[in-house]
Each structure stands twice: as structure tokens, then as C-alpha cells.
Amino acid sequence: PDPDGPAQYYTVLDRDALVALVAALEGAEAVSVDLETTGLDPIEASIVGIALSCEPHVGYYIPVAHEGLGAPAQLRLADVLDALRPILEVDTPRIIGQNLKYDMIILRRHGVELGGISFDAMIASHLVRPEERRHNLEQIALSYLGQTMLSYKDVAGKDGPFGAVPIDRATEYAAEDAEIVQRVHPLLLRDLEERNLVPLFRDVEVPLISVLARMEEHGMLVDRAVLEAQGTELRKELQIVEADLMDIAGGAFNPNSPKQVAEILFERFGLPVIDRTKTGPSTSARVLAALAEQHPFPGKLLAHRELQKLLTTYVDQLPKAIHEFTGRIHTSFHQTATATGRLSSSEPNLQNIPTRSEIGGR
């Protein structure tokens, strides 16, 4: 059990409570911030409420857009942001949180520049334990505090909107998110210090948060017309390569079927089996590259796979990721997804476009 007893979470519904909270935050050494929103995409999500904490075991939730049955009157978002602006926009490094890049992008869209970030629990956890796959706050709380946090599913259901959650329940969930960061903050800092990782955390990873936020917000400009023209060209090339494959194989087959490809390679042409999988002889790219020195079929199949990959993964998919209002692709960059510490990118992944070949480079 927590030696300090259960945490106290408060809902801020009127101007007097907001003024009192701002006064408490102004005197705090570290202010934990967490937004509750309408979705996971920071380019589109709207703010439903703001959770804050200025000390362990005490958290606050300011609802601004709860519309569930019996929801009380709430403060206007614009008024709340104006009141919090002196806290959130300071240069003094004292803002702490979990995945603050997300909050930074949303707040900037609402005219608030989140400044003075000093600590992000997700990034600290990743530096301390890079071999772990998950660095969400629930996992961090379980590892460091032995505490099971409320999950989103617990309060809103699988896909329910947070704005429909009753405010007392929403306060319990949201304020906990902000307050738990206050408790794990010194524990993660201790582990960073023990591993001599504070300079890397402070001088590289934390400043990178705002850089990546701006990159995501800015987005990647995509020329839809050029991609469509390339798609037409690639489809023609794919048809030619497919016809060549059928001709070499001596009949029709499915180039995407490992079983049929293996039958042609190893039974029809009698090529040597280089590697095996659980289901039979391997037809991986490495195997095909080795066999291409002995027969034209494997090399032609590699060309087919490359064309198909370019079409299905990039040429046909990238236009679907173009944002309706900005005309750009807003990928998400992750500082904590790889054990080596390199960046990764998702929705869509813009870091693995195969440019080594001439056609990929095009």
C-alpha cells in the first residue's frame, strides 16, 4: 500500500477554483500536464479537459467539453488556456508529463506554446529500460509504484468518447495521469543518474521533443498527381514483368504464393534449397538473390515483388494519408520505439521507402 495514503483528485468547475489552482501551480517546482482529447491524432483532436498536478498525491482536472447526461456547467476552454498561459509558456524548465509531444502539438493549435519542458516519463523510461517494448504510463506506474492505473477502457469503454464520461469518473482518470507523473518523476531521474544518462536525456532527447512536434505539425508535402502518374507507369511495368514470369515458368501461377513459387523453383527448375521455414523451402529475398545467379526466374520475381511493394505500400497508400485540410502527410515520429534509440515513424511509416534501387529512388 502507498505509505502516503490514497491520492486526492479535485475537479475545477468555476473561476475561483481555477484562480486557486493557478496560484498553487505558480509556486510549484514541477508542473505535470496532461490533456484529455477527442482522439489520438494531434493534428485533429480537440481538448475535452486539462489535468494538472503540482505535487505527488494531488491532482486536478479542468473539464471543458463534457456533454454527458447530467454534466455540470464547465469553464470555457479559451478562459482556461488564458489563465494557464503564464504556467505553460514559461522558459524555466519545470513542465513534466508523459508523451508531451502530443500535448505540445494540440496546445500550439490552440494558441499556447508549451515551454520549459524538463521531463517526459515515457522518454526517461525508454532510456532506462530500452529493452522494454512498452513505455506507457500504466506500465511505468506498475513497474515503479506497483500501482494499477485506471485504463481508458475502464472509464470510456473500448471506443467511447471521453466527453461522454461522467465528470467525477473523468477526474479520477485524468488527474491520476498527471499526478502519477509527479510520483515517478524522482524515481526515473534517480535511475537516469545511476546510469549516467542525464546529459543524454536533458541535452538531446528533451530538446528533440519540440523539434519533432514542429516536424509533425508541418507535415510532408505530397504531389498527388506525380504519385498517380507513377502508379500508372508502375502498373504497366508490373504487367510486363508478370507476363515474363509466366513465360519463364511455362504457365500461369500466383507470384504471391510462396507454395507455388517454391514448386516452380525447386521442383520444376530443380534449383537448390538454400534455407527452410516451418512450412517448407524458403523463398525469401535473400534466397531469391542467391538463386538469381543460376536462373532468370528468381531475379524476375524479385523485380515483381519490388514493383508490387512500391505500388501497394507507397504509391497507392500515401495519397490516403494526405490530410484533408493541410494537403500534407502528418506522420508520427517516435523517440521510444526502438531499442537502439533511432527514430521511427508511423501512420504512415515514412522511413522505409526503398530508395536504393533506381525505381525506388524515382
- How much is the average pLDDT? 93
- SSE order, one letter for each helix or strand: EHEEEHEHEHHHHHEHHEEHHEEEH
What Rg is obtained from the alpha carbons, in whole angstroms?
26 Å
Count the E strands. Answer: 12
- Residues in helices, as a percent range: 40-55%
- How would a textbook summarize the main sheet? 6 strands, mixed
Describe the protein:
Helices cover about 50% and strands about 15% of the residues. The chain is α/β, with parallel strands linked by helices. The strands form four sheets. The protein has a six-stranded mixed sheet with strand order 1-4-3-2-5-6. A two-stranded antiparallel sheet has the order 7-10. The protein has a two-stranded antiparallel ribbon with strand order 8-9. Strand 5 (about 95), helix 3 and strand 6 (about 115-120) form a beta-alpha-beta unit. The chain is elongated.
Q: What structural keywords apply?
A:
two-stranded antiparallel ribbon; single chain; alpha/beta; elongated; 12 strands; 13% strand; 362 residues; six-stranded mixed β-sheet
